[in-house]
Structures are given as structure tokens and as C-alpha cells.
Design goal:
By secondary structure, this protein is of the alpha+beta class. The chain is 35% helix and 21% strand. It has ten helices and 18 strands. β1 and β2 form a beta hairpin. α5 packs antiparallel against α6. About 3% of the residues have low confidence.
């Protein structure tokens, strides 16, 4: 009987500790739901998860960012969000248990959540004082919820009759019915607040969705030439010449994809050397000369043989024409500005050489992608596309502002994080088929892939087996020098394990280097290879 009596209080303590943790989780759920409702009034990016996630991304070292992109790809943001939610859950359980012992102290600890979220939101590049509201409101409401639940739960530490009841700890009794009612009511109210927040956010974003849905892209005055016959080899396992929008890579820092309404959107062009500042609307752009071009984009985070490169048909307005209208001259013509700083609605800054935009290449403000308006994830309503430069120095999405300045006077977002100021795309090639560790049968095996050197073009691709002699691959027809080029080599495969290696030579005669270098600070180098087992 004594052993049974000793076990019962122990079980009671564990039960109460579990319920205390549950009360913390319910309070945390309430915080997120109320904050989501408040962020629908302010803006979705001001929510605590998005704000803290953005702050984490801003402070992530390049090596860690590269690790995330390499291992999680475009799911890196989802992984970050799940990580933040997991940490919040642990924090919520801890404050729940604390509140069961010290009701006031535990409830007050929730305010830490509000402070962290508010500081992160206001400190974002595009942050404003109003962005603190969702985190603050969520924390205050949640502190009240936790205080209420802790009161119904009572104190885990049952006070002795002699000691009496200590202030803020409860009276030691567990109001089971009251706790269940309060917890259910808090969970239901939180779910309702979250649902209402999502509905309000959807309502606010409905204008953006409608502006994209109703947009009919104009017929370009300067259409892209038809893709030449033979540009797409149509080999199984080989990347298609045009990358579908749904498959096009996305690497950026936006945890919440901005959904911008094209109707009120404006772009401002100003700064050093601008003699006639411009502010243009989306409709203004539609009335200008529209060009259409096939251009391959590549991310500087793309490792040798990596997937973060794609080819699309873009439609838009020449950026150089707008700059000339604003009175801008490139440095080669004694213009005072050598850098364009493009700013996105999410606060991203991207620095692009003025000379590269005005040297005759098809740099554009893109409005459409592969025959449709830009997808929201790829920059609707307007983004920059500059052939020959990695995206982090050229491809500003959701653009809203262009400032002319100098590289000496301003470092854009990624430059402040150890990446190079200027980053022309390097000559690269990739084996798409056979895949690593594939098991083709002996005989003729097509080894095929893509090679790219935007704004220089690809003149030759070679493949070798097990470090032997280089064999020239058959090149697909070339569309233009700003797109990637497919290639294939018919390999007379023999049984055994073999290493296939590829190298490309660009239009200037420069051959892809064998030196293996990581992505930081201006893109990876080296030759892609795959190991296969022929059996």
C-alpha cells in the first residue's frame, strides 16, 4: 500500500506536467493564430514566423546558406519554417510548465516571443514600425491565455498546509472541468482567428491574383526567333530545351512569396547620373516596345552539375531604353554611375553593372515567362533579366525601385554577405543522362546533357571515360548565345564501373577549368562527372 501511495503522487505530477506543457502549446497556437490575423491587416510578411525566418536568412553565413540550398533545394524555406515552429513548440512547452509553477512569471515569459518577433519584423530591410504589431498582439493575447490555463491547472507543487498558498502559484487544486473548457475554448478561438486571418489575407491578395489572371500579354514588336530544329534533342532523361515554369528553379530569401497587384505597382528610376527621374506604371510598360527573347538563367549557388539553371522565353521591355530616357550614360561614355541597385518589394537589393545592361545585350524588365504572365514565385508583375550574369547580381524579382549609384559607395544584399560585386556566369556543363550509379547495359549508351556560357555561347562539348581521351559530343542546334545548348555522345559502353566526365568550351575559345572551387564568392568551377555500373 505504501508503494502504491507513493506512485500515485508521482503519476499526478507527471500528468500535471504534461497538461502544463499542453497548455503552453495551446497558448503558442493562439500566438501564431492571432499574429496571423493581425498580419493580414498589416501585411503577410510581418507575421512572426516570416519575420524571424527572414532575420535568420539575413544573418546566415554563406556556407550555411549554400548547405541549405544544396541539401534542401527549393524546400530550404519550408525546412527553415518547420525548424522555427519546432523551436516555438519547445519554448511553448517550457513556458507552460513554468506557468504551472509560477503563474505570473510563466505568462510574462511569453512576451519574449513578442519582443523577438517584433524586433525581427521591424529590422527587416523593408520593415516599418507597424510590422511589430502582429508579434506584440499575439504575445499579449497569449500571455492572458496561458495565465488563464495555468490558473485552471493549479500548482504542480502542492503547497503544504503550514506554508499556505504562495502568490502566483495557484491553490494546488486541479480544476479539471475548468481546464478542459478553457483549453477547448482557447484552441477553438485560435483556430477561428487563424482561419479569419487566412481569409483576410486571401481577400487582400485577391487583387493581385485578378491582375495576373486578367493580364493579356501583348504581341511583341521584336519576337524571339523560332527555336531552330534540332535545338531540343528529345533524349530521355535530358532536360528539355525550354524549362516549364513549374519546373524552373527558385532560389531567393522570401519566406512568403510577395503577391503584388499590377494595377497600383510603380517603378521609380532615380539616382546618380539620372537627369530625368522616371516613375512608370505597369500599363506604361505595356505601351512601350515589347521584346521577346530566349534566355538561360543560373544561380550562383549552383554547384558543378547542379539543378539551379533553367531556360525560358521571356517577354518584356528593354531596360537600357528606360535608363537612356532617364538620361543615364554608361561608364564607357563617362556616366558617373557604374551600379544599378534594384530593390524588391520584400526589401532585397541586387547590384548590377550599368555597363552590362547598356552594352547591347537583351537586358529587360520581364513581364512574362513562357507565354504567360510571370508566376508570383518568379516575380510578378515585373522582374529583371540580364543575360550573362548570375541571378544574385541581375535578376531582381518583384522589383519596385532602381537607383543609379557606384559599387564603391553601396554594397547590395549578397555583397554584404561575402559574395562578389560582379559575377558573370562561368562556362559550365552537366551530364543529365545516365544518372549517377545508373546501370545501363553494354552497347551504345547516349551520354547527354546541357552546357551554358550565357552571352558567350557554347562552341564545343567533350566527354571522356575513366580519365581517357576526350571525345567530341554532337551539339544540338544553337538558339542563341544567351541560352544553354544540349549535347550528346554515343558511348560504346563496356561492362564494369566507369566514370564519365564532361567539359565545355565557350564561344571565346575558353575551356571549362578542371579546378574545383565552391560557389562562394562568384560561382563554382570544375567538371561534372558521374559514376555508372554497366552490367
Amino acid at each position: 500500500m505504501q508503494e502504491h501511495g507513493a506512485t500515485r503522487p508521482r503519476r499526478s505530477r507527471w500528468t500535471r506536467a504534461g497538461l502544463a506543457g499542453l497548455s503552453g502549446l495551446i497558448a503558442g497556437f493562439c500566438a501564431l493564430a492571432v499574429a496571423e490575423l493581425a498580419s493580414a491587416v498589416v501585411r503577410p510578411e510581418a507575421g512572426p514566423v516570416a519575420a524571424v525566418g527572414g532575420a535568420v536568412i539575413d544573418r546566415t553565413p554563406p556556407a550555411v546558406k549554400d548547405f541549405a540550398v544544396r541539401h534542401f533545394g527549393t524546400a530550404d524555406k519550408l525546412v527553415l519554417q518547420l525548424g522555427i515552429l519546432a523551436l516555438l513548440a519547445v519554448f511553448a512547452v517550457a513556458v507552460g510548465i513554468l506557468a504551472s509553477r509560477h503563474r505570473l512569471l510563466g505568462s510574462a515569459a511569453v512576451l519574449v516571443f513578442g519582443v523577438v518577433g517584433a524586433v525581427a519584423a521591424v529590422g527587416r530591410p523593408e520593415g516599418s514600425p507597424a510590422d511589430a504589431l502582429p508579434s506584440v498582439v499575439g504575445a499579449v493575447v497569449t500571455a492572458g491565455v496561458l495565465y488563464l490555463l495555468a490558473g485552471r491547472l493549479g500548482s504542480v507543487l502542492r503547497p503544504s498546509p503550514a506554508a499556505g498558498v504562495r502568490d502566483g502559484q495557484g491553490d494546488g487544486t486541479f480544476d479539471r472541468r475548468g481546464f478542459v473548457i478553457a483549453a477547448t475554448a482557447a484552441a477553438a478561438a485560435s483556430a477561428g482567428a487563424g482561419f479569419l486571418g487566412r481569409r483576410l489575407t486571401s481577400s487582400v491578395q485577391a487583387g493581385a491574383a485578378a491582375s495576373r489572371r486578367d493580364l493579356v500579354l501583348p504581341v511583341p514588336e521584336s519576337p524571339a526567333p523560332a527555336v531552330p530544329p534540332g535545338a531540343d534533342l528529345r533524349i530521355r532523361g535530358l532536360s528539355s530545351f525550354i524549362t516549364p515554369n513549374k519546373s524552373f528553379y527558385r532560389v531567393d530569401t522570401a519566406l512568403v512569396v510577395p503577391r503584388v497587384d499590377a494595377d497600383p505597382w510603380r517603378l521609380r528610376i532615380h539616382g546618380k547620373g539620372v537627369t530625368r527621374p522616371l516613375t512608370v506604371s505597369f500599363r506604361d510598360l505595356l505601351r512601350r516596345e515589347i521584346i521577346e527573347r530566349d534566355i538561360t538563367l543560373a544561380c550562383v549557388s549552383n554547384e558543378v552539375g547542379g539543378p539551379y539553371v533553367g531556360n525560358a522565353r521571356w517577354i518584356g521591355v528593354r531596360l537600357a531604353d528606360l535608363l537612356r530616357e532617364a538620361g543615364v550614360e554608361p561608364p564607357s561614355r563617362d556616366g558617373p554611375a557604374d551600379q544599378i541597385v534594384a530593390r524588391s518589394v520584400d526589401g532585397m537589393t541586387i547590384g548590377t553593372p550599368v555597363e552590362a545592361v547598356m552594352d547591347g545585350r537583351d537586358a529587360m524588365l520581364a513581364l512574362g515567362m513562357n507565354g504567360e504572365p510571370l508566376p508570383f514565385a518568379h516575380g510578378f508583375p515585373v522582374r529583371m533579366v540580364v543575360p550573362g550574369l548570375y541571378g544574385y547580381v541581375s535578376a531582381c524579382k518583384w522589383i519596385k525601385d532602381i537607383e543609379l549609384t557606384t559599387f564603391a559607395s553601396y554594397d547590395a544584399y549578397w555583397v554584404r554577405r561575402s559574395w562578389a560585386r560582379q559575377a558573370p556566369v562561368k562556362t559550365e556543363s552537366r551530364i543529365d543522362t545516365p544518372r549517377p550509379f545508373a546501370s545501363p547495359k553494354p552497347g551504345i549508351v547516349p551520354v547527354a546533357g546541357v552546357a551554358w556560357a550565357q552571352h558567350r555561347g557554347i562552341s564545343r562539348v567533350e566527354v571522356r571515360v575513366d580519365g581517357g581521351v576526350w571525345h567530341p559530343a554532337r551539339l544540338a542546334a544553337q538558339d542563341n548565345r544567351d541560352t544553354w545548348r544540349q549535347w550528346v555522345w554515343e558511348w560504346p559502353a563496356t561492362s564494369g564501373r566507369h566514370t564519365l566526365e564532361v567539359r565545355a568550351t565557350d564561344g571565346t575559345g575558353a575551356t571549362q577549368t578542371v579546378e574545383r572551387v565552391g560557389t562562394v564568392p562568384d560561382g563554382a568551377t570544375g567538371r561534372h562527372s558521374v559514376v555508372v555500373d554497366v552490367s
